[in-house]
Write a structure and sequence with these properties.
The protein is α/β, with parallel strands linked by helices. Helices cover about 65% and strands about 10% of the residues. It contains 20 helices and four strands. Helix 19 (about 415-425) links the parallel strand 1 (about 395-405) and strand 2.
């Protein structure tokens, strides 16, 4: 989270930080960053579905009579989740922030109750047990990482949501509450591994029988909040991708400008809801969904490690040995998790890969198409100083008034202006040519946003700069 782009996070913000030592080298890294973004969209489709479904499945621990209602209940909750999305991150945070404090406090309490009389479980922190586990079980132990990985997902969402909440609140909350609560709860679950009947759902087995249903309700509400954080991150990525020219953006019902992304966009919210519900119905259980989950996140984490290492070396000035040591350590972990998730491809992992490749194709096609359109539009154009100088030679009449031309190619005469002069033989006395550019930083301060240059003969060049997280309402 120290690799923030003017307080914004996420893999696209990280990609924008990459320096350009060579065009080809940067292009490869940018494609990696875009692919990681595409994979995160697939993760964003699965996370709400698996979070809500796994929480609701806890009701089966209390009573088997609710088994047939698990999927309908999950769909109803998903409808509610996406309907409150229109309220925005701040409103949802105020409403559910206290709930999350209760949730993590409950996790800690459940764990403490079980480990209080069995402190020997703290020996789990000794690495020798993990080494012995891998030596004794070999391939099976490696494959278990595919399931273990589910406990560390969410880190990429914290990074993507840095612009929503800020680095310091995320850091303080993580170390002061979330990490200790999770660690204690997992230690408590570890004590249940010897009980055969607890292996189906060790988390809910931590609670006494009378508390299971209240815990299901609390877990469901917590999963809704957690899913909302990832959905917010997806909206941030969409805005960044649109501004950087990798997506066309989301048009609202009354669009004010070309690349508008609103968290209330009905088409995006409806599409996200329908995809999550389809996954719940199609896979049927959180266990089956877990097979589809993991590959996208592990691949994104590995890509993030590569991009961060490049930035640490070239922008932060890390010594080569330190950068290589960091990358080696992190990639061993990332690629081990990635490899352990590969066997999930036939049973559902293909879904994340297919979504990622499809979106990668869309994003690269849009980006390439925009660049090609710009090149074609600029073919045969006349540079602005040459155009101004040629007006007198062509006998062009200057008429009273001011004309404003919005044009995307800086320092060239707009096509509409050139055609007007050629066909009508007149040009206004005052001509303002406005060009808009999106910088590789999240936000441009208002004082630096507009630059106006007075040219000769009543011509003025206005340059407007936006960041990739700014609302580009020209």
């Amino acid at each position: 989270m120290r690799a923030d782009n003017d307080h914004e996070g996420g893999i696209l913000a990280l990609t924008a930080l990459i320096p350009a030592p060579s065009a080809s080298g940067r292009a490869v890294l940018v494609i990696l960053g875009v692919f990681g973004t595409a994979l995160l969209y697939g993760d964003g489709m699965i996370t709400p579905a698996i979070s809500v479904l796994s929480a609701v499945e806890g009701a089966e621990v209390a009573t088997s009579s609710l088994d047939r209602f698990v999927i309908p209940i999950a769909i109803v909750i998903l409808v509610g989740l996406f309907s409150v999305q229109r309220r925005g991150t701040h409103a949802v945070g105020r409403a559910f922030g206290p709930l999350m404090v209760v949730w993590f406090s409950t996790l800690a309490l459940l764990g403490v109750v079980h480990i209080a009389g069995e402190l020997t479980v703290l020996r789990a922190f000794w690495p020798g047990h993990g080494i012995t586990f891998f030596v004794d079980n070999g391939w099976s132990a490696f494959l278990s990482l595919g399931s273990v990985f589910l406990v560390v997902t969410g880190g990429e969402a914290l990074y993507a949501d840095m612009g929503h909440f800020g680095r310091r609140p995320i850091t303080v909350t993580w170390y002061a509450l979330v990490l200790p609560a999770l660690a204690v709860n997992y230690l408590g679950q570890g004590l249940l591994l010897g009980e055969a009947e607890a292996i189906d759902n060790p988390f809910y087995r931590l609670a006494p029988e009378w508390a299971v249903l209240p815990l299901v309700v609390l877990a469901t509400m917590a999963s809704v909040t957690a899913s909302q954080a990832l959905i917010s991150g997806a909206f941030s990525l969409t805005r960044q991708a649109a501004q950087l020219g990798y997506l066309p953006g989301c048009a609202s019902s009354t669009p004010r400008h070309r690349n508008e992304v609103r968290s209330t966009c009905r088409s995006s919210t409806g599409a996200s809801w329908s995809r999550s519900c389809a996954l719940v119905v199609g896979f049927g259980s959180s266990t089956n969904l877990a097979a589809a989950y993991g590959i996208a996140v592990t691949a994104t984490m590995a890509i993030t490690t590569v991009l961060f290492t490049v930035i640490a070396r070239r922008r932060f000035g890390w010594p080569l040995a330190a950068a290589v040591a960091f990358a080696s350590m992190m990639l061993v972990i990332d690629l081990a998790f990635f490899g352990a998730n590969l066997p999930k491809i036939p049973s559902g992992g293909w879904f994340s890969i297919a979504v990622g490749l499809l979106l990668l194709g869309v994003m690269l096609t849009w980006h390439y198409g925009r660049q090609r359109m710009r090149r074609l539009s600029g073919a045969g154009l006349q540079e602005l100083p040459d155009f101004i100088a040629s007006l007198a030679d062509q006998g062009i009449t200057r008429v009273p008034g001011t004309a404003v031309y919005l044009y995307g190619i800086q320092d060239y005469a707009p096509t509409a202006l050139a055609n007007h002069a050629r066909l009508q033989h007149v040009v206004h006395e005052e001509v303002v040519i406005v060009t808009v550019e999106v910088a590789d930083i999240p936000k441009v301060q208002p004082v630096y946003r507009v630059e106006i240059e007075d040219l000769t003969d009543g011509f003025h060049q206005a340059r407007i700069r936006f960041g990739f997280m700014d609302d580009t309402d020209v």
